[in-house]
C-alpha cells in the first residue's frame, strides 16, 4: 500500500485564498502542505491586468501576482505539491485524501480553497469547438483573433472585462446579453457602453455555435429572450463569460453545500460543519469573489485552523 504523507495542515488550492492560508500557517510554524491541481495560481493566472489589488498602484499582471504569493508562502516553509485529489474522507481522524495514482495524504486540519470554474451554456457547438474559436479565457486566447470579429456572452463584470480586453485584438467585439441592462459594476458598464469597438446585442441568448475544427467558429444562432425570434450572426470567436461553478464536488455529502454547490461556512467564520475543516475563497463565496476577499478569507482560515489545532491538541 502507498505510503501516506501526513501534515498538520493541508491546504487544497493555490489561488489567493490557498496561498494566503499557506503564508499564515507557515509563519505559525505549522509546516503546511499545499496541494494544487493542473492550474496553479487559480483563476488569476488566466487574467490579465489586476488593477484593484491593494499595494499595486500601477496594476499587476494576474500570473505575476500569484507568483509573488507563492514565493512568499514558500519562503516561510510551505511545501507545494501538484496532484489532483480524487477523494476525501472527512469521517476519519486524521482526515484522509487520495490523489492520482493512489497517492495518500492525511492531515489534522484541512483548508479547502479549491475555487470555482467558468460556467458553460451547454449549447450545440460549445464543447465541440472549445479551443477552436470557443473560449472561457480572453487572456489565454484573445491574441488568436487579431482583426477578427469576437463575441462575448454575459453581462457581468467578467463579460465586460473580457469584452474590453478583447478590443485590443478584435476588429469588433459583440457583447451578447440576455437582458436589457448589464449586471456589471457602473465603472465597467460605462467603459463598455462608451467603447467604439463594442456593440451590445440586448435581450439575446445563444442557441448554437456554428463552425468546425478546420474552419473554427464561423457564426452563431441567437434567439430573442422574449420573442424567441432567431437570427444568425457571423463571428470568428465566442468567449463565454457567464459566471462560475464552485469546485466543491469532492465534498458533496460530507460538507454542507448550498443549492449552487458553494460550501456554507459558519457566519463570520471559515469553519465548516466538520470540525477541523475550513473553507476559504471562491468555493464558499458567491458574493464578492475578489482576489483580495479570497486572500482575506484565506487568512481567516489559517488563523481559525491554528487556534483549532491548539485547542484540540489539548
Ligand atoms: P456574474 O456577476 O454572476 O455575471 C454572470 C453574467 O452572465 C450575468 O450577466 C448573467 O446574466 C449572465 N448569465 C448567467 N447565466 C447565463 C445563461 N445561462 N445565459 C446567458 N447569460 C447568462 O459573474 P461574473 O461576471 O463572472 O462576476 C462574478 C463576480 O466577480 C462578481 O461579483 C463580479 O463583480 C466579480 N468580478 C469583478 C471583476 C473586477 O472588479 N475587475 C472582474 C470580474 C468579476 P444576468 O445578469 O441576466 O443574471
Short description:
The protein has 314 residues and is of the alpha/beta class.
Structural description of this entry:
With 314 residues, the protein is of the alpha/beta class. Helix content is 22%, strand content 28%. It is built from 6 helices and 19 strands. Strands 1, 2, 5, 6, 7, 8 and 19 form a 7-stranded mixed β-sheet that branches. The chain has a 5-stranded parallel β-sheet with strand order 10-17-11-12-13, covered by helices on one side. A hairpin with a 5-residue loop joins strand 15 and strand 16. The radius of gyration is 21 Å and the shape is elongated. The mean pLDDT is 95. It binds NADP nicotinamide-adenine-dinucleotide phosphate. The site of NADP nicotinamide-adenine-dinucleotide phosphate has 18 residues, from helix 4. The site of NADP nicotinamide-adenine-dinucleotide phosphate (NAP) has 18 residues, from helix 4.
Amino acid at each position: 500500500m502507498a505510503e501516506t504523507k501526513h501534515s498538520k495542515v493541508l491546504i487544497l488550492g493555490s489561488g489567493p485564498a490557498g496561498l494566503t492560508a499557506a503564508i499564515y500557517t507557515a509563519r505559525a510554524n505549522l509546516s503546511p502542505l499545499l496541494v494544487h491541481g493542473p492550474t496553479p495560481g487559480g483563476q488569476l493566472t488566466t487574467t490579465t491586468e489586476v488593477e484593484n489589488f491593494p499595494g499595486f498602484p500601477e496594476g499587476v499582471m494576474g500570473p505575476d501576482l500569484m507568483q509573488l504569493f507563492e514565493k512568499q508562502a514558500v519562503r516561510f516553509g510551505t511545501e507545494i505539491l501538484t496532484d489532483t485529489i480524487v477523494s476525501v474522507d472527512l469521517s476519519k481522524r486524521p482526515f484522509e485524501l487520495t490523489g492520482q495514482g493512489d497517492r495518500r495524504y492525511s492531515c489534522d486540519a484541512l483548508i479547502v480553497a479549491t475555487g470555482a470554474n467558468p460556467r458553460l451554456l451547454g449549447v450545440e457547438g460549445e464543447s465541440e469547438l472549445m479551443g477552436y474559436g470557443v473560449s472561457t479565457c480572453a487572456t489565454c486566447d484573445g491574441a488568436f483573433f487579431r482583426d477578427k470579429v469576437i463575441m462575448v456572452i454575459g453581462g457581468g463584470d467578467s463579460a465586460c472585462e473580457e469584452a474590453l480586453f478583447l478590443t485590443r485584438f478584435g476588429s469588433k467585439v459583440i457583447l451578447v446579453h440576455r437582458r436589457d441592462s448589464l449586471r456589471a459594476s457602473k465603472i465597467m458598464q460605462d467603459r463598455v457602453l462608451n467603447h467604439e469597438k463594442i456593440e451590445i446585442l440586448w435581450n439575446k441568448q445563444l442557441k448554437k455555435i456554428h463552425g468546425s475544427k478546420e474552419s473554427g467558429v464561423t457564426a452563431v444562432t441567437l434567439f430573442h429572450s422574449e420573442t424567441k425570434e432567431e437570427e444568425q450572426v457571423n463571428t470568428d470567436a465566442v468567449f463565454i463569460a457567464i459566471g462560475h461553478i464552485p469546485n466543491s464536488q469532492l465534498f458533496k455529502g460530507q460538507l454542507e453545500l448550498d443549492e449552487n454547490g458553494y460550501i456554507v461556512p459558519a457566519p463570520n467564520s471559515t469553519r465548516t460543519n466538520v470540525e477541523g475543516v475550513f473553507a476559504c475563497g471562491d468555493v464558499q463565496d458567491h458574493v464578492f469573489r475578489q482576489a483580495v476577499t479570497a486572500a482575506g478569507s484565506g487568512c481567516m482560515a489559517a488563523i481559525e485552523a491554528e487556534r483549532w489545532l491548539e485547542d484540540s491538541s489539548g
